[in-house]
Amino acid sequence: MDDKITTAYRKSKGIYDDVLTQSKWWSRLYIRLFWGGVDDTDIANRLLAYLPVDYSGRLLDVPVGTAAFTWKKYGALSSASITCLDYSGDMLEQAKGRLGHAANIAFRQGDVGDMPFADETFDTVLSMNGFHAFPDKEKAFSETYRVLKRGGSFLACFYICGQSKITDFFVDSFLSKKGWFTPPFDTEESLKNRLGNLYENVDFHLDGSIVWFQCVKANEKKHKSSN
Question: Would you state the CATH architecture of domain 3-217?
Answer without folding.
Answer: 3-Layer(aba) Sandwich (3.40)
